[in-house]
TrEMBL record:
Membership in a protein family: Belongs to the short-chain dehydrogenases/reductases (SDR) family.
Region (Disordered): 254-287
Protein's organism: Williamsia serinedens
Pfam family name, one: adh_short
Full protein name: NAD(P)-dependent dehydrogenase, short-chain alcohol dehydrogenase family
């Protein structure tokens, strides 16, 4: 489904992993998709290569170099979108950075360097807030829009590390409280819990399961993008503003599947429930 006039989205951290899938799926659905990442934007660079692939399939993806720890650089991204697109309908906060010694997530917090705070919280939480501030200024003025925080079940149970959980729980609470202050503006905010993601790295590992979850029933990055697209188009999304939603459940309710037609599993039961903040997040069938 595409729009006669393409709506405009910004996906932060859109060059790889989940972000790449969201960019690809939104562009395929007819969005003009701006996306950020570190590095150049030429055809030889990662950002440029993704834009070229999307363009080759008829989509519109626009890469912008941005270090999300630099507030001035983030502001410049929004200024460029305003100047060239004149609107912003969707912000997907997906930027994330791994700490040094990523495999060290198996170590307890007191054995990890305190510098883990910078990638996991400054990038994984604060950067989402900064982008949301700029997006809300544009969206509130226009009277419509949606902010989506890419989060995880790490808010509900221990996952990876202490700081990972701190950041993800902060994203959920951020969406819940932003929804309170956005009430009546036409702008909504949600947090989206993803399950296990079938990234290129994970698929290349040869594993059939990870942390007890089957890769056969995990989520493609493009699946997440299709779910985000459906939520952004949902005329009743304002009723769920502030909620923490589960991507697998939202996909199932709408008949959205992985690229191979499989239906991802929800991890709700494994982690003891759904979101901790905002209105109830149970998916309802659409259509």
């Amino acid at each position: 489904m595409t729009d006669p006039i393409a709506r405009v989205a910004l996906v932060t951290g859109g060059a790889g992993g989940v972000g790449r899938g969201v960019v690809t799926a939104l562009a395929a659905a007819g969005w003009t998709v701006w996306f950020t990442g570190r590095g150049g934007t030429t055809p030889e660079d990662r950002l440029g290569r993704l834009a070229a692939r999307v363009t080759a399939t008829g989509g519109d993806a626009r890469p912008v170099t941005c270090d999300h720890t630099d507030d001035a650089a983030v502001r410049a991204v929004f200024e460029q979108i305003a100047a060239e697109s004149g609107r912003l309908d969707l912000l997907v906060n997906s930027v994330w950075a791994a700490p040094d010694g990523f495999v060290g997530f198996d170590a307890p917090f007191w054995e990890r360097p305190v510098t883990d705070w910078r990638p996991l919280v400054d990038v994984g939480l604060r950067a989402h807030y900064v982008a949301s501030v700029h997006a809300a200024r544009t969206m509130v003025a226009a009277g419509s829009g949606l902010v989506v925080n890419i989060s995880s079940f790490g808010s509900r149970g221990h996952l990876h590390s202490v700081l990972y959980g701190v950041a993800k729980t902060g994203l959920d609470k951020m969406a819940a409280d932003m929804a309170v202050e956005l009430r009546g503006t036409g702008v909504s905010a949600i947090s989206l819990w993803l399950g296990l993601i079938r990234t290129r790295m994970l698929l290349a590992s040869g594993l059939t399961e990870f942390a007890g979850f089957s890769l056969d029933r995990a989520e493609d990055p493009t699946f997440v993008g299709r779910v985000v697209d459906a939520l952004a188009r949902d005329p009743s999304i304002a009723d769920r503003s502030g909620a923490t939603l589960i991507s697998a459940e939202e996909g199932r309710a709408r008949g959205i599947t992985n690229d191979d037609g499989t239906q991802p599993d929800s991890h709700r039961d494994a982690f003891g429930g759904g979101g901790l903040f905002g209105p109830g997040g149970t998916a309802t069938t659409v259509g």
